[in-house]
Amino acid sequence: xxxxxxxxxxxxxxxxxxxxxxxxxxxxxxxxEPHIQPESKSIKIDSTLLISFDDKTLTDFYKSxxxxxxxxxxxxxxxxxxxxxxxxxxxxxxxxxxxxxLNDFEKKSATxxxxxxxxxxxxxxxxxxxxxxxxxxxxxxPRKLYKNWDLKENYIDLNETLTNLLDSDSLADKxxxxxPNHIAYKRLKKALRLxxxxxxxxxxxxxxxxxxxxxxxxxxxxxxxxxxxxxxxxQLQDSLTPIYxxxxxxxxxxxxxxxxxxxxxxxxxxxxxxxxxxxxQRMQQIIVNLERWKWYPKEMGKEYVIINIPDYRLTLxxxxxxxxxxxxxxxxxxxxxxxxxxxLTQVVYNPTWxxxxxxxxxxxxxxxxKSRSYLAQSNIKxxxxxxxxxxxxxxxxxxAKSYRYVQSPGTFNSLGMVKIIFPNRFSVYLHDTNHRDYxxxxxxxxxxxxxxxxxxxxxxxxxxxxxxxxxxxxxxxxLQNEKTKFIKIKKExxxxxxxxxxxxxxxxxxxRDDIYNLDADLYTKLRN
Length: 528
Prior knowledge:
The chain is an alpha+beta fold. It folds into four domains: 47-179, no CATH class; 202-277, Orthogonal Bundle (Muramoyl-pentapeptide Carboxypeptidase, domain 1); 297-351 and 414-528, Beta Barrel (L,D-transpeptidase catalytic domain-like); 353-407, no CATH class. It has 18 helices and 18 strands. It has helices at residues 2-31, 56-64, 74-85, 99-107, 114-137, 142-145, 158-167, 171-178, 183-195, 220-230, 246-258, 269-275, 279-295, 357-370, 373-377, 456-464, 472-480, 519-527; strands spanning 149-150, 303-308, 313-318, 321-331, 339-343, 346-349, 353-354, 380-383, 389-390, 404-407, 418-421, 430-431, 445-447, 451-453, 485-488, 494-498, 502-505, 508-511. Strands 1, 2, 3, 4, 5, 6, 11, 12, 13, 14, 15 and 16 form a twelve-stranded mixed β-sheet that branches.
């Protein structure tokens, strides 16, 4: 009996030990389970974590939060990460926003300790602030890049904006509202999507010894047809011949139209140059134009005149409707038309023309030195510092730059019959011309900086908006008396002189020559 009791006692002790051991194993297993951070929990941030960012705006933001995390809600983080990841759709570079590092943090977010959660929160805020800044104001500062760009910065208070976004019920919608809203920007985004649908290209540069005319036979036509097929101007063919046939002529004309070239079907240097652009170059061209549009005013005005310099076109827009378009002549590469925004303030009929310094130095003085009769032939009067008229024979080279040179009104006047004034520091304006045949040229970068407008009288009639006093008949009467007349533009019309070389229309890519050679250099600066 004692033996039986002893055996039972030993079994009981062994059983208890097994249960105790099993319990210990379970406890150890439980301790390695990850701790799930509650979504609503804000974590205290060690302010020293901000030092390495060397960013006052970032530090000020967290100071305002009491040095606590702000991105504890997963849905908000997902929205921001998705926005940063697709920032290339805005012409931006996702790598600039530490997307890979942020995604790595997000994948582990549920198991991160407080220190890493703080680091994640700070990096997300820093990247998001940078994205907002780049989105609303561009990556680069044009005022530091160009001397002849005079645009006000699109100021944005990053921390105030960030606070408003945090308080918003619809973060995604609010981010969308920060993006440029102009139709030209939207067309550029569409152009970027379009060009990304094209396959890789590996064409060799086209070269022609002479122009190719319709019905010519030329071996280069085979490669030209391949290029036209790639850009979807020509249907894919089973076999290609070196004959410049009707179908290819039509394709070339479509291509020329999309690139702002003469639609004559003649394959010359300009057409070959445009055909030689690769997909990569065109994509880069679109990206730099997206950057420019981030520099431009967010609000153009209820009624405004906008000129695209490379397109040689003036457009008048009211309530988002295009009311008028006019061909224009702009500054040549050596005397670029500046980029600016202003207001149209005054119309001048029968204007005089005071010769500006550059034209005086490079054109007028050399012409006078060749022949003193130039002044009389050009109807230019010369005034000294006291306002006294200097005759051509009194004129002295040593005093030449101190004189004032004024061309009298008339049909021969360089400004033509009218000029339209808008305040600016470059002393440029819109005006008529005594060389109206120049408007028929394809390349119209011909002026010394000012913008010449085709059919300017109709434009001034619209701007003055006075059917009784300033209709075309009254304007004609004023011009006939050849007396200078100043008339104030009473309604508010904004004015924008801008520069963009790419966009899209009806699912077609549109390009213009980069007449001031700005695109390639800007892309290099954007990506370096």
